[in-house]
Amino acid sequence: MPPIKTDAAASDMTKARKSSTTVAMDYGLIHLAGGEKIHLYGTPGQERFDFMWDILVTGGIGLILLLDNTRSDPFQDMKFFLDAFDKFIGETGVAIGVTQMDISATPTIDDYHLQLKVLGITPPVFAVDARVKNDVSLLVQSLLFTLDPGLEEE
User: Nearest 5°: phi and psi at 102?
Assistant: First the structure.
């Protein structure tokens, strides 16, 4: 199913980096081979939308964190979100996708792994383009395998 998007023209400091931003909640649905469905909910990353975060993790099976590699300090962003979702991640799991690596090749995925090791966690981390279905599928699969390593690919 095509995702439902809630993008609007950026009107704050975000407009210096991109023309539009998520202003509510994006939604998508993935149908798995066995008939199961995975519901994906996307929320804005700006802290002013943090009231939505608790709502969206309720009943969730895990977190997919997307980080923008062109930001001035993506490691600070990563730590912020890992701290913000610490309890939820501890009860479920997390997979990390790093976007914009075609624009900024540093830090590298290895650098992210080193930073995560310092934080004491070892989630899967991939370079992704969030607009590409296979990249999103890779993140979802890696999260599912993290939650249940006994899963088999079909």
Answer: -75, -20
